[in-house]
Specification:
Shape: globular
Number of helices: 26
Distance between the termini: 58 Å
Strand order of the largest sheet: 5-4-3-6-2-1-7
Length: 768
């Protein structure tokens, strides 16, 4: 790296200079300086050792014009230890080079060379920051010499161990001992520091399996087939582990210090590409970039160029469409996605840096409406409709569940949802036919909704009621265009609502009506109206009911006792009964250990009784097979509780002291309480039986979770993953310092931009 010579600077003076003393190095302090420049110079001893040794090897290859890759190894030794090695095939070293250059601190041959990374004359000594001694084998002019560099009593030393003639090409091999416990630390730092080094061959033999730093490790972490995408202003490596934007100074990785730049963190995992002569300089230990005023301008300018490139590529993916849901997806999703080399990047954090006008898709047939305003507001689209009923487990319900009372575009996109509309009355026959047509949705919760157009939009309205004038912003539209604007809005609604089932126009097949009459008992009112109802349930069944064990029996959760009950009474019981054959008693035993005993009864039946209950069609009597399909609340509560239990186990200390979050964020504290209470209410076992595993597989495949609590679960899980400082803080809380946690959490949340209660932000009020 070329270093500019120091120029005469402007000197502040006061009075007449009487004497000038030139500053110098104290030779008596040489031992202390050596220790500072080797042992104490680096904060990241492993990462710096890897970066400096490989950079030296790369410089040697560049000087010799060699394109052959550098060999970087991590190999086990016979004594259970490891060796980290870096071997180049460049210019090599002879005894004079070792004596005149390698042995001297601050001595460098690279300050006047344009394309070499070296600068300080310290890199070759960097292994001493990790270990007290290491070897290097130097070949040059047909001679091979092995040296040991080590910490002496006063100064560091280099001992020649042997010299011999050789036919091998010139080069240097550095051999550094690695403690067994540091193996995966070297693996992580190799991925970090060498992610952008193209001419490197990895010879790594690390045992697969096991966890390190919370992640499963294998030899796949380091491989030779990784790709590097290079652009004029940035580069992307498949091997980088940094999820933030970073800096590459001639392929040397540097994390970006966003606070020194005075900007927010940019979560786009690409490296800004700089050459050695672009105006950036590393710190003496080369662990970071010097953020001078000039350097900040250069980096920000590079960020803008990268942002322009990404948004230009993004605009290429935007096309007009006749798919209203595709356009709605774009407008409702604030994230901007670009695919580079088969990898997906969310470039939204770069939006504030680009000068490129961001394209938006247009919906064919819509020219006047502000789709970005309308399609993101569900209240505008569904404001004319009221949800009268939602079908839950085969029954209509004016449910208080938020999901049942809400209409959104996301619900319309869901193919499992059925939306029925009507004007005045909802006939009984049509309700039954809808259940027949959509049995899976009818068995679930809230997947069939009934809407009535109760308050059609008018041009104007009073008492703050929505109208075309308000929702379409007709105030800003010429009056001559009002009619066409309203027609466009109605056309947009028709595209969204095209799959609605219009019950007023529904033509029920005569075959279905005839079949329904055969299954019913006919009654006639005084007015002559014909009524149809299900036949009365007659007879009784004998079954075995699961009950608690009177004493511990290993491997069992219950015992089965015989019981007799009339069919007509079963449908009146305030709980769900799940049945299976006597031969499936083991499965039912497992199910008993999972479910709420107060709201669910487990029974087994003979083959005769099985046929009897199937023909009876009792709403609260369900077979094991139907139960395991997951379209019932009991199933969904059990699997949701299991998910929550896993989350609580992962973040045990946060949940144990969740009350500490109450003064910081009552919303987040409330979510934690809700999850914990839900788990306590619906988690009945600590074991993971075969039946439980099957339930979890079914739930995951069909997303069959308790909708309301699952949304909370996903929000909390996302919060933990996004703000990992929460878990770290709570893991280090002792019972004695809880009083200070409110202030600590508040400050950390502010720093990490975690949403807190309004009271925790200071707002300046200005009186005019």
């Amino acid at each position: 790296m070329i270093v500019k010579e120091q120029k005469q600077s402007e000197v502040l003076t006061e009075g007449v200079i009487q004497e000038s003393i030139a500053m110098s190095l104290d030779l008596e302090s040489a031992p202390f300086l050596m220790q500072m420049l080797s042992k104490n110079l680096y904060s990241d001893d492993v990462g710096s050792t890897i970066r400096e040794t490989v950079s030296n090897a790369l410089d040697s290859h560049r000087r010799a014009g060699i394109t052959k890759p550098i060999v970087v190894g991590l190999q086990p030794q016979s004594d259970q230890s490891y060796e980290f090695t870096v071997e180049d095939f460049g210019v090599g070293l002879d005894d004079e080079d070792v004596a005149d250059i390698i042995s001297k601190y601050g001595k460098s041959t690279k300050r006047t060379i344009e394309n070499e990374l070296g600068l300080m004359g310290l890199g070759f000594k960097s292994p001493l920051s990790y270990c007290s001694s290491f070897y290097f084998i130097a070949r040059k002019d047909g001679m091979e010499r092995k040296y040991m560099m080590y910490e002496g009593e006063e100064v560091n030393n280099i001992d020649l161990l042997y010299e011999t003639k050789t036919t091998k090409p010139s080069g240097v091999k550095v051999v550094i001992p690695v403690k067994r416990g540091d193996v995966y630390s070297f693996v992580d730092k190799m991925r970090e520091q060498l992610a952008y080094f193209e001419h490197v061959y990895f010879d790594v033999k690390v045992p697969s399996g096991g966890y390190y730093n919370g992640r499963y490790r294998s030899t796949a972490d380091i491989h030779n087939g990784f790709k590097i995408f290079r652009h004029e202003h940035f580069q992307i490596s498949e091997m980088t582990s940094d999820e933030m934007m970073h800096i590459c100074l001639d392929d040397v990785y540097y994390p970006m210090d966003f606070s020194k730049l005075g900007i927010s963190i940019i979560e786009v995992p690409v490296g800004l590409r700089f050459g050695l002569n672009d105006g950036l300089m590393p710190t003496p230990n080369r662990e970071s970039i010097r953020y001078t005023p000039e350097a900040k301008i250069i980096i920000i300018d590079k960020i803008k160029k990268v942002a322009d490139y990404f948004f230009t590529e993004y605009n290429k993916t935007i096309h007009d469409s006749d798919d209203v849901f595709a356009v709605a997806n774009y407008l409702r999703d604030t994230s901007k996605i670009v695919v580079i080399e088969d990898r997906t990047y969310n470039i939204t954090p770069l939006k504030s840096y680009t000068t490129v006008k961001i394209s938006t898709p247009k919906l064919k047939g819509i020219t006047r409406l502000d789709l970005g305003h309308i399609l993101v507001n569900d209240d505008y689209l569904f404001g004319e409709y009221s949800i009268t009923f939602a079908m839950r487990h085969g029954r209509l319900s004016k449910s208080s569940y938020y999901y049942d009372r809400t209409m959104t575009i996301d619900i319309l996109k869901n193919k499992d949802s059925v939306i029925c509309t009507y004007k005045d009355k909802l006939g009984e026959i049509k309700k039954e036919y809808i259940k027949y047509q959509y049995p899976d949705q009818a068995a679930g919760h809230g997947k069939i909704k009934f809407l009535r157009k109760s308050t059609p939009y008018k041009l104007f309205s009073f008492k703050d009621q929505p109208s075309y004038y308000s929702i379409l912003g007709l105030k800003r539209v010429p009056r001559s265009e009002w009619r066409e604007t309203i027609k466009e809005f109605q056309y947009l609604q028709s595209l969204l609502f095209k799959n609605f089932v219009d019950l007023d126009k529904l033509d029920i097949p005569q075959e279905w009506l005839a079949a329904r009459r055969k299954k019913s008992v006919v009654a006639v009112t005084s007015t002559g109206k014909v009524l149809y109802r299900k036949p009365k349930l007659k007879g009784e069944i004998i079954y075995k009911k699961a009950v608690d064990l009177e004493r511990y029996c290993r491997g069992n959760n219950c015992k089965f006792e015989s019981e007799t009950c009339k069919l007509e009474k079963i449908c009146k019981r305030p709980f769900l009964m799940i049945y299976a054959g006597h031969n499936d008693a083991s499965k039912m035993d497992q199910l008993y250990g999972i479910l709420d005993k107060k709201k669910v009864k487990i029974i087994t039946l003979s083959d005769r009784e099985m046929k009897l209950v199937k023909d009876a069609d009792i709403h609260n009597l369900i077979s094991y097979e139907d139960f395991m399909k997951g379209n019932n609340k009991v199933f969904q509560r059990a699997v949701s509780a299991f998910l929550i239990d896993g989350l609580i186990d992962t973040y045990e200390r946060v949940f144990a002291r969740r009350y500490l979050f109450d003064p910081v964020s009552a919303r987040f504290c409330g979510q934690l309480n809700k999850l914990f209470d839900y788990k306590e209410k619906y988690m009945f076992t600590n074991g993971l039986s075969d039946v439980y595993k099957e339930m979890l597989e079914v739930a995951e495949k069909g997303n069959l979770y308790d909708t309301m609590i699952h949304d909370v679960y996903l929000q909390v899980k996302d919060t933990f993953e996004k703000f990992n400082f929460i878990n770290l803080v709570f893991r280090n809380i002792s019972w004695g310092n809880e009083d200070d946690m409110s202030i600590i959490l508040t400050n950390l949340c502010k720093y990490h931009k975690f949403r807190m209660d309004y009271k925790n932000y200071k707002h300046k009020v200005v009186n005019n």
